[in-house]
Design brief:
Layout: H1 6-14, H2 33-36, H3 40-43, H4 50-60, H5 64-71, H6 77-89, H7 93-103, H8 109-122, H9 136-149, H10 151-173
Helix pairs in contact: 4-5, 4-6, 4-10, 5-6, 6-7, 7-9, 8-10, 9-10
Length: 175
């Protein structure tokens, strides 16, 4: 995990345990007015990408629109990645796919592939099979399917989404 300030750690501890697959189910769990008034570089002073870490933080504590506003103004792979996650949760699969195609390959993909493989081994829809590397477009399809069927598919997709959130946040907030 990335080293973050006590204020950021406190916000994250008060956030929901799991992010829903659908933006409509996302609930604001904390007041982030003090966070939004600070520069991302102050909040994440040693971050690889402070703005991207802020986009992830806002999403995690339920501020979808604010997270989107930050992510869409980040001209980097991480900005595109968060933008893809945000649109996948909207759900706007076409738009999410556009942003994930802009990401290309990302350094968190190998770790995410391993985490997803572990999650799928435990209890997942039988037809869900990973490719040889992490494929965010395939995961969009799984999330669409999970939203339609709920149950185990939804739980599995949420677990993978949470692993993805943590890995990407740690990457962005880390140095």
């Amino acid at each position: 995990m990335a080293s973050t300030s006590p204020a950021i750690d406190q916000l994250l501890s008060r956030g929901p345990a799991r992010l829903p697959l659908n933006q409509a189910a996302l609930q604001r769990t904390v007041d982030v007015s003090d966070v939004r008034s600070q520069d991302a570089a102050v909040l994440f002073p040693n971050a690889r990408n402070a703005q991207a870490a802020l986009a992830g933080l806002l999403l995690r504590v339920g501020y979808w629109e604010e997270s989107h506003n930050v992510a869409q103004n980040i001209n980097s792979t991480e900005g595109s990645y968060w933008h893809g996650v945000i649109h996948r949760m909207e759900p706007d699969s076409f738009n999410a796919g556009y942003w994930f195609r802009r990401v290309g390959q990302h350094p968190v993909f190998p770790m995410l592939f391993e985490r997803a493989a572990d999650i799928l081994r435990n209890d997942a829809p039988k037809e869900w099979r990973l490719k040889s590397t992490w494929d965010p477009i395939l995961f969009i399809e799984w999330c669409d399917e999970a939203r339609a069927s709920s149950g185990q598919a939804e739980a599995t997709a949420i677990d993978i989404q949470m692993a993805e959130w943590q890995l990407l946040f740690d990457w962005c907030a880390g140095s």
